[in-house]
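Ticket #4471: structure export looks truncated?
Reporter: QA, pipeline team
Priority: medium

Steps to reproduce: submit the single chain below to the structure queue and open the exported record.
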Amino acid sequence: MIIVRLLFVFAALSVGASLLAWLLTGNVRYRHWAWNITRGALAAIVAVLLLFALERTFF
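Actual output as written to the record:
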């Protein structure tokens, strides 16, 4: 469970840094990078929650 929390913190820091870089530079690449990190983090959260649900259901 600690790994999931660390990954969430890492994703939040990465998104924050990317958005800050976008605000400072105006380069759209950083905004796209933040969006891709957010999508990946959401996919990882859904996968972990599905694993928890399957474990709870079948075991």
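Status: closed, not a bug. The export was complete when the record was re-opened. Leaving a note from the reviewer for reference: Residues 19 and 52 are 31 Å apart (CA to CA).
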